[in-house]
Amino acid sequence: MIPQGILNKMDGSRQRYVDELLSFLRIPSVSTYSQNGSDVRRAAEWVLNQLKRLGFQAKLYPTEGHPIVFGERCDMPDRPTLLIYGHYDVQPPEPLEEWRTPPFQPIIQDGYVYGRGATDDKGQFFTYLKAIEAILAVESKLPINVKILVEGEEEISSPHLAPFLSSHQTDLKADAVAISDGSQFMQGIPAITYSLRGLSYLQMEVNGPQFDLHSGVFGGVVTNPVQALATILGKLLHPDGRIAIPGFYDDIVPLEAWERDEMAGLRFDEEGLKSYLGVQDLAGETGYTPLERKTARPTLDVNGIWGGFSGEGAKTIIPAKAGAKVSMRLVPNQNFRKINGLFREYVESITPAGVTLKIKELHGADPVLVSRDEVHVQAAAKAIEKGFGRAPVFIREGGSIPIVNLLKEVLGIESILLLGWGSPDDGAHSPNERFLLDDFHRGIRSVAALLYELSPS
Amino acid sequence: MIPQGILNKMDGSRQRYVDELLSFLRIPSVSTYSQNGSDVRRAAEWVLNQLKRLGFQAKLYPTEGHPIVFGERCDMPDRPTLLIYGHYDVQPPEPLEEWRTPPFQPIIQDGYVYGRGATDDKGQFFTYLKAIEAILAVESKLPINVKILVEGEEEISSPHLAPFLSSHQTDLKADAVAISDGSQFMQGIPAITYSLRGLSYLQMEVNGPQFDLHSGVFGGVVTNPVQALATILGKLLHPDGRIAIPGFYDDIVPLEAWERDEMAGLRFDEEGLKSYLGVQDLAGETGYTPLERKTARPTLDVNGIWGGFSGEGAKTIIPAKAGAKVSMRLVPNQNFRKINGLFREYVESITPAGVTLKIKELHGADPVLVSRDEVHVQAAAKAIEKGFGRAPVFIREGGSIPIVNLLKEVLGIESILLLGWGSPDDGAHSPNERFLLDDFHRGIRSVAALLYELSPS
């Protein structure tokens, strides 16, 4: 139970918290731009300085890219340890002309803070630092052990995180990980994400004749590689939207009635989605609602295709080759390596004669499912209810978060708490990114509550 | 019957004919290169000068591109008129490093003349001029009326020929057209091409969501445009290679048994073709031989496809749109406008829900069939037998020759004599283009014989 003094402390410090956040947001730590290198480093040092002021044993760990900040404060050897993950880098601000105010001159307007990084992830991550600060100001020690890992390359796919995790497994040992780099279900409806879809991403290349042929002279004697590829792709989905690969659905944990009821209760805005996407009708696997299809059912998409002549006008060739990128979103308990194998087997079996097929596996991630009955998840739910004034809903996310798979696989931590304080319309990665200040403060309160909920005392 | 004196004249002039051809080949009349503009004009004037020396009423007709040379010598008002078509421009010589001798310094080696334009089309066209010269030298007039049309833009798709034909319909009136811009069936087996395939060339565009979507967040709620396009393309052909468009085969004149026997007798080199194409097996419509399939049966090919991400690595998007170019080779008596309509109707009927489809017609040409019983064709067959010492075989070509359609449609001439003196391995459009001098002289003899065969006397 969070002591009242801490709540009072946090209430009294709201303006200072916001002022500090603004100074964090002013650092243009765009990780993808080499000319921003010193800014990115400045952001890392800014975070390091915060950790040191909180009494953390912390330092910068150089990588071949941007440094990783890691610190810990383990006051309670017998109590649980929470690892907090965040990132101090931000997306590029472009297109600049669409910002109503400069992206790195954050301002407060209508209760929101506007600026690049407001929600993704500086603002959300910063809630952890301020909650810890408030606890320490009142209690002088934390109710559990806390480790904080902050990287500067999340927006460029975390190229140096895996080796760091591997070589610091003992340092990073923890009972649960908390990440606030997403959002609530919608503004005012806080959520815990308990499932992520996995990913199988493959590239196919179909080769026919050894060079492009004149379609008049040779049309009729060779298999056309684009045609062959299209035939294969056309056979990956049944007309009802189900994936046609034999065995594809075998390992899936079916959605139970209670979970489908719960998702139906979320009153997902289909009309709003259609108008956002600019489509007349939503589409997909029959027998499931759009929300189920986009978060809890597997999908298969062609991400790109190429072959032959794509310029203006007519060129009468039979292309020598064609290629496509195909990816599948997987759900618990599918395994991406097994799915890759099934994909390969099926596609090879339906490849037309006269061409050769090459399949390359580009990327894979297993789906994630965290038990909602799990003690840390239950603690997080109680904490959010305290912070936001209403119990969170439990949601699945349709995307994959590679960091989550890394943390699970390299560190072996199963309790992944995905706690979004932001809102889906905050504009992460878009112009005019923002974060509702009330959500910022609710997030701080939720973090403080979480540390007490995780404490066995 | 060709007078013996003319044959003697031609035999005695062989070396001079070759010397003159070499001077024609030395002019680098590459129509596609603007820096060769004055060379192209020089070639036109070289041809004009030849025509004038033969007593033709001839002149250069300027166009917005390269000039057209047209001349006529109508000595016999009551006799038939033959229109001869040729082109004085040539393909670019690149890649230069693959030429064993400079492309515009023609040389004689092993009985061949090597140089750009040797066969396509300077060497073949020049046979007409030398045959006429020999006849005039002995007889002082031609046995029929002759018109000669020589353009300088064949290698760049004859952009200014159609308007010229339209505005000179009376001048160009003729009973038959002779074109020697192809080849024999193979070296030593002279041929008359009596059929060309037609062409329907279309572009398809499939549109889905209004922008590229994240495949994790939105996978499962929209129809993927690439997937939709692949599904359509996959349904254009049956597994047996037949085209699936309803009504597609309705108007086709079936191959008769005698024609199939004749084609079988040509002993087409399948093994050589496979090794040239670099494929294990030939493919195509079941029930027909490769030679039938590539010349006498219709085909459908995807010429190009595009959509989404084709760069290196993985990008997890659902593309907003996709497109493809699709062309069909048509055979007598298919009509490209009708086929375009059937294509559109069928494709629209199989387009998956959730996307919109746009079809653009890029290019069309009707197939060509010249009756082999036709009097001019029979005359050409006899002439070739005299020139080459063996009767020609009758062949179909798989490609379309837009000029032939133009001549038929604008001038209304049905007798199109496609008489190739060259060989399929002469390397037209390739490095080390060549023309066998024996074929050059056989061609000259054939032309002289043709003029007498066409004469009713």
Explain this structure:
The structure is a homodimer of 457-residue chains. Chain A is of the alpha+beta class. Chain A has 2 domains: 4-196 and 368-453, Aminopeptidase (3-Layer(aba) Sandwich), CATH 3.40.630.10; 198-252 and 298-362, Alpha-Beta Plaits, CATH 3.30.70.360. In chain A, 34% of the residues lie in helices and 22% in strands. The first copy, chain A, has 14 helices and 18 strands. Chain A has helices at 4-12, 14-25, 37-53, 122-139, 161-167, 215-218, 225-234, 257-264, 270-277, 290-295, 336-350, 375-388, 402-411, 437-453; strands at residues 57-61, 68-73, 81-87, 107-109, 112-114, 145-151, 176-179, 191-196, 198-207, 213-214, 299-308, 317-318, 321-330, 356-365, 368-369, 393-397, 416-420, 434-436. In chain A, the strands form 4 sheets. In chain A, strands 1, 2, 3, 6, 7, 8, 15, 16 and 17 form a 9-stranded mixed beta sheet that branches. In chain A, a hairpin with a 6-residue loop joins strand 1 and strand 2. Chain A is elongated, with a radius of gyration of 25 Å. Chain A starts with a helix and ends with a helix. The model of chain A has no long low-confidence stretch (mean pLDDT 95).
CATH superfamily of the largest domain in chain A, by name, is Zn peptidases
Number of distinct beta strands of chain A: 18
Given helix and strand content, the structural type of chain A is: alpha+beta
In one word, what is the shape of chain A?
Answer: elongated
Question: Mean pLDDT of chain A, rounded to whole units?
Answer: 95
Oligomer: homodimer
Q: Indicate the CATH architecture of the largest domain in chain A.
A: 3-Layer(aba) Sandwich
**Helix share, percent of chain A:** 25-40%
Biggest beta-sheet profile of chain A = 9 strands, mixed
Tell me the span between the first and last alpha carbons of chain A: 9 Å
| Count of discrete domains of chain A | 2
Strand content of chain A: 15-25%
Q: Biggest interface between protein chains, with counts per chain?
A: A-B, 79 and 79 residues
- Taking pLDDT < 50 over at least 5 consecutive residues as the criterion, the unreliable ranges of chain A are none
Question: For this structure, what is the CATH class of the largest domain in chain A?
Answer: Alpha Beta
